[in-house]
């Protein structure tokens, strides 16, 4: 269940296609051409990427990428703070988006500052990435993390279960994305038509799938 497959469909144009097909998952798969194996960063992701990659389906066929939207808040002792946001995407043949965040977005920590990080991720981390997050949290007590995921990745595997438990023990707050969270990502991290902002339209089973994954996560972390 909820596994990422090694292959995904390709299309002639990357991120382009007939917008009338964007609500059909199979059509979306045809529209998306995977870029070269590399980490991609930006402020807003294409609409078709969001609708396909973030959809909280039970069987995640073709979704072999991780999309990570982040909000980083850095606060000094004087109460002054700075906030930045953006997204990363990966190919699983190279560094994962979770690891790339700590290499490119937040590579060092100043003990005089406080860091609050919120991730909205298309699926939960693999065991190695979960352990990397746990290790970073353990080493940096001035870091707080909230990790919201659309789907659970290979959650039935003992190695994944153990890693997610260690993540919780390290202090990371791990949650399944609610419909309101998908709407937040849509409004703040997805490309909009110039001059207008289209309202988020939930897919039919968004609430049902949220409850499904919420139950499974509770079982894993119990």
TrEMBL record:
UniProt GO BP: cytidine to uridine editing; mRNA modification; mRNA processing; positive regulation of gene expression via chromosomal CpG island demethylation
Quaternary state and interactors: Homotetramer.
PROSITE patterns named in the record: CYT_DCMP_DEAMINASES_2
SUPFAM superfamilies per the UniProt record, alphabetical: Cytidine deaminase-like (SSF53927)
Name of the coding gene: APOBEC2
Sorted UniProt keywords: Hydrolase, Metal-binding, mRNA processing, Zinc
Keyword Hydrolase (UniProt): yes
Cellular component terms per the entry's GO annotation: cytoplasm; nucleus
Chain ranges of the CMP/dCMP-type deaminase domain: 62-167
This protein's record includes keyword Kinase: no
InterPro entries: AID (IPR013158), APOBEC_Cyt_Deaminase (IPR050610), CMP_dCMP_dom (IPR002125), Cytidine_deaminase-like (IPR016193)
EC number of this enzyme: 3.5.4.36
Protein name: mRNA(cytosine(6666)) deaminase
Family, similarity comment: Belongs to the cytidine and deoxycytidylate deaminase family.
Region (Disordered): 1-24
Cofactor: Zn(2+)
GO molecular function: cytidine deaminase activity; identical protein binding; RNA binding; zinc ion binding
Organism: Sarcophilus harrisii (Tasmanian devil)
Catalytic activity field: cytidine(6666) in apoB mRNA + H2O + H(+) = uridine(6666) in apoB mRNA + NH4(+)
CDD domains named among the record's database cross-references: cytidine_deaminase (cd01283)
Primary role: Probable C to U editing enzyme whose physiological substrate is not yet known. Does not display detectable apoB mRNA editing. Has a low intrinsic cytidine deaminase activity. May play a role in the epigenetic regulation of gene expression through the process of active DNA demethylation.
């Amino acid at each position: 269940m909820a596994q990422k497959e090694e292959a995904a469909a390709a299309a002639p144009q990357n991120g382009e296609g007939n917008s009338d097909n964007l609500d059909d998952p199979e059509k979306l798969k045809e529209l998306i051409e995977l870029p070269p194996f590399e980490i991609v960063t930006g402020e807003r992701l294409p609409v078709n990427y969001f609708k396909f990659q973030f959809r909280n389906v039970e069987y995640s066929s073709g979704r072999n990428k991780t999309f990570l939207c982040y909000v980083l808040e850095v606060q000094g002792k004087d109460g002054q703070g700075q906030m930045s946001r953006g997204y990363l995407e990966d190919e699983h043949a190279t560094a994962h988006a979770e690891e790339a965040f700590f290499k490119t977005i937040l590579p060092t920590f100043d003990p005089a500052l406080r860091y609050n990080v919120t991730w909205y991720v298309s699926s939960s981390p693999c065991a190695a990435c979960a352990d990397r997050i746990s290790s970073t949290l353990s080493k940096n007590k001035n870091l707080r993390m909230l990790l919201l995921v659309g789907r659970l990745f290979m959650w039935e595997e003992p190695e994944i279960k153990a890693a997610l438990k260690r993540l919780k023990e390290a202090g990371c707050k791990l949650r399944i994305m609610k419909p309101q969270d998908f709407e937040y990502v849509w409004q703040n991290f997805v490309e909009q038509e110039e001059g207008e902002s289209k309202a988020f339209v939930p897919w039919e089973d968004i609430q049902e799938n949220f409850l499904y994954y919420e139950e499974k996560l509770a079982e894993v972390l119990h």
